[in-house]
Task: structure prediction
Amino acid sequence: MPELPEVETIARDLNQAIAGHRITALAYHHWDKTFATGAPDAIGARLRERIIEKVDRRAKRVVF
Result:
């Protein structure tokens, strides 16, 4: 598990790099905690073509 300063740095860098970009595809790991709710395929269908407004962190998790 990464330490909090590393997560903060990653979230900031991702925010600068991808905020404002459109989601064209979604790849996921077969890990139960990848998504908070819903089936990954259904979530991918709902997220496709959405714009990433901001990347942030909540504790040690990166949130899009």
